[in-house]
Amino acid sequence: MKLIYQCPKCKAALNAKRNIILAASSSSVKENKGLVLLHEELGNYTVATTPSLTVETGDKVNFFCPVCHESIDSREGENLASFIRIDENGEESVIVISRIYGERCTFQVDDKKEVKSYGDSVKKFLNPEWFL
Ligand SMILES: [Zn+2]
């Protein structure tokens, strides 16, 4: 099996060529929207954006599925967004990322509710259980 990242709403695959592709907008400027490419390796914070989206460190980003256009922002925590990861062994987990641009914080929650965390900003979220 191949590693797949999926939209939690329509289940479309979101990754290609080692990138996770998300649609994004930032409310700081009107008509500021485009695509964000995140590295598919957890903990790798290489990010690329399309020219129509300008975000700076600290800006809050709204994330959408590029296929069905549904929001993937977390309802439980307003600064988080999530999507599904299915690894090469078919193991499914939920990936939770920060919506604050430049904040290096990723949680991986498996089907046993075990949480792994990645990134240097992760200490800000002392109790990740609240989003489960
Ligand atoms: Zn979708």
In a nutshell, what does this entry contain?
With 132 residues, the protein is an all-beta fold.
Overview of the molecule:
- The protein has one domain (4-121).
- The model has no long low-confidence stretch (mean pLDDT 90).
- The chain has a five-stranded antiparallel beta sheet with strand order 1-7-8-9-10, with no helix packed on it. Strands 2, 3, 4, 5 and 6 form a five-stranded antiparallel beta sheet that branches.
- Helix content is 0%, strand content 38%.
- It is mainly β and 132 residues long.
- The two termini are 27 Å apart.
- The structure holds zinc ion.
- Residues 7, 9-10, 12, 65, 67-68, 70 line the site of zinc ion.
Order of helices and strands: EEEEEEEEEE
Strand content: 35-45%
Give the strand line-up of the largest sheet.
1-7-8-9-10
- Biggest beta-sheet profile: 5 strands, antiparallel
Mean pLDDT figure = 90
Query: Rg, please?
Result: 14 Å
Q: Calculate the terminal CA-CA distance, rounded to whole Å.
A: 27 Å
Number of E-state strands: 10
What share of residues is helical? under 10%
Helix run count: 0
Bound molecules: zinc ion
Number of domains: 1
What structural class is derived from the secondary structure elements? Answer: mainly beta
Large-scale geometry: globular
Low-confidence stretches: none
